[in-house]
Structures are given as C-alpha cells and as structure tokens.
C-alpha cells in the first residue's frame, strides 16, 4: 500500500481535536487512509443500509460504547448525527474521538458550520499526487499520468484506466453527483460534464456553456457547484492585484484529475493524447492540480490564482504562500524556447519583479536563467524550496 502524505497531518490533528473530518472525491482513498491511521478505532460505513438505518433510528446507541473512538465513513448520509457528535465531544473533552469521512463537501460543511465549529479539523484527500506515486511508477513522459490520472484503484489494483473510468462515471457521477441537485435530465447533465472537460484550462463563460447545451445560466451555475461539491472540478479565480486595470475577471475551470478529463474527452491512448488539441490545457491542469494536492496533503488551503489582461497577456498560475509570491508559466512543450518567458517578462516589468518566477514544462532539463528558473514537470514541487534567482530574491528582500 502506498502511504499517503496526509496521514501524518491526520494523526497530528487527531491528538488536538475531538473530531477530524477527511473529505474528498469518491475512490480517493479516504477509507483506506483512516483505517490505516487508526487501526484501534471502531468503524462504521453509512453506505451500508442496515448501518445507516441504525444511525438514523437510534443515534445515541450508534455513537455509544466506542472506548477507543469511532470512524464514520460517508457521514453526510445521516446529517442528524452531527448534533449528537457535538454533544459527546463536548461532554468527554478528549482528542480523536471521531474520525469522519465524506465525499460531498457542501453537505459536510453545512453541518459542521452549524454544530461542530471549533471542534473539528477538516482535511481534504484528493487522488494520488506524483509526489506519492512517482517513486513507484517512475515514467519519463508525463503523458502516462495525464491519461491514467491518479485514482488509487488504477494503481493499487492494476486496473486499466480505460476499464476503470467508464465505471466510475456510471457509478458515481451518474448516480451520486446528479442527486445532489436532484438532476433528472441525465443525458443533458452528462453532456454538460463532457463540455466542461473540453474547457479545462480555459476561461469559464457560463453563458456560452449554457447556450451551447440548451440550459439556463442558473442551471449551469448550479451544475458547476455540483461538480465542485463532489470534487470533480474546481475554479481558479483571477489575481486581482491591480497592476493593470484591464483584467479578465472570469475564472478558469480545471478538473481534480486529468485521467477523468481525458476519458470524458474520448482520449483512449497516449498516442492520441500527444496529438490532441487540448494537450497543452491538460498539462496545465495536471500541474495546477498537483499544486493543489501539495497544499491539501499538508493540511493547507491552496491559495492559487491566475492573471490575465484583456490583451491576452497571462500568468498561468500565481501561488501566494503568505511569505512570497510564486509565478508559474506552464508549457507542455519538451523543448525550451524564448516564447516560454514572454508572460513572465511582462509580469516582472509591471510588478517590479516582486515574485519568484518559474517555468514548468514537459521536458527533462533544469535551467537557471536570469529571468526565471526552468523546471521539468517531475521536479515541479521544487518551486516551494528553490529561490528563482538572485535578482528577484534581492528585490523581494528590499521590498519587505
């Protein structure tokens, strides 16, 4: 079994909070993680009808007599439990009493905000990151990961992505996700999800998307919220610092897993992927999702943005760590060209160089340039440990 990076943070927080919640998409490994981290705790899965009925009919009895604590899987199925969990946590005042998991973010958040505020630590577990999987599946070409994605069953059970994703879509997206908003028109919803996959890394124009499918803009907004609540997709918002007043204000759309996006796009093999018109967008999606996972795996909130003005000048990703600003240009090409640096050069001019600029690209060479550090895709996380260059670092020090 591949150890999850989040496990250390999970165990640490369980010694400080009476309740720890692990949320994330279906099949991301939440159950495996919590059972491995807390082998001495009792376990209950609310997806099982008899267990769910017990919890609904007699919540006090369901929650009692667990001396070493209780793991409750898919807790959002019985929201009535939260007030009872609160009462027990307040009465016993000991850490790590309850470990909760859930695959529907907004249901958990709604109940936590009402009853468990101040008593619960919330962590997000996404599918494997390259940081976790790369030592075991050390592939030289990023196409392998873009196509297969990072859901644990593909690696733990050696299931082919072409066999796994169709069942994932039928089992979870068609069954679970649409029920969040009681979506009855399954064909239109499936078309909507596929259209979203065709917009990865692009500005999300909900009006255009709604018109193209034949739904109202309010329906499109609601369905995007469904995809976000179930950890299928997320929006990256623009960086609003006013270096230039003529800025784009639409968010960009990304999927948490490029394997799912590739499947929805009908991409079946690496050769097809390499010539696909969206390979650049999928590579950008892959890099940004990896940065999101880096933060979530350490219990941190991703503070990511992009920047784009009305003339199309753009920075693909801006990471605000609280201590420094990291700017990233993401290029799927495997040969470094001067075009890679255009966006960063312009940004450095208008921002007085107050950032740490990096290029992350699809090749294998690492270079230290005057205006940026160039990193291959499999060394992406060095953006958090390497200063970009002495000139920029000096400007940062002078500014602060």
List the helices and strands and how they pair.
Layout lengths: L5 H9 L4 E5 L6 H8 L4 E4 L3 H9 L1 H5 L6 E4 L7 H12 L5 E5 L2 H12 L3 E5 L5 H4 L9 H6 L3 H5 L4 H13 L12 H12 L8 H8 L3 H13 L3 E4 L15 E4 L2 H7 L5 H5 L4 H18 L7 E5 L5 E7 L4 E7 L10 H9 L5 E6 L5 E2 L4 E4 L13 H10 L1
Parallel strand pairs: 1-4, 1-5, 2-3, 3-4, 10-11, 11-13
Antiparallel strand pairs: 6-7, 8-9, 9-10, 12-13
Task: Describe what you observe in this structure.
This protein has 400 residues and is an alpha/beta fold. Helix 5 crosses helix 6 (105-116) and helix 12 (206-213) crosses helix 13 (217-229). Strand 9 (314-320) and strand 10 form a beta hairpin. The protein has helices at residues 6-14, 30-37, 49-57, 59-63, 81-92, 105-116, 130-133, 143-148, 152-156, 161-173, 186-197, 206-213, 217-229, 258-264, 270-274, 279-296, 342-350, 390-399, and strands spanning 19-23, 42-45, 70-73, 98-102, 120-124, 233-236, 252-255, 304-308, 314-320, 325-331, 356-361, 367-368, 373-376. Mean pLDDT is 89; it is low at 390-400. It folds into 3 domains: 6-124, Rossmann fold (3-Layer(aba) Sandwich); 130-237 and 250-292, no CATH class; 321-399, no CATH class. The longest helix has 18 residues, at 279-296. It starts with 5 loop residues before the first helix and ends with a helix.
